[in-house]
Write the structure tokens for this entry.
Amino acid sequence: MTASPSADVAAADIRQMIGEIVHAVLERDVDPSVDLFDQGATSLAFLRIVAEVNERYDITMDVAELEEASTDALLGLVAQQLKTQEHQTAR
């Protein structure tokens, strides 16, 4: 099954926003597929990133659900939470 064009646009927008947040907190570009801790992020920096993402998207991300702390993993979790919210709102 292929994602709809609007889902692709939304994912691209989320990816860009998370990338901007990560860049602002870490003050450098990172590889989105590599664990942020492997790229020099501290626990405090990661918590700041998660807090910013939660605030931006009005979600409560449970980082325990992440297999790794990469930008791509954050994207997946944000998209999942937003989809869940969308389904709950539609009811």
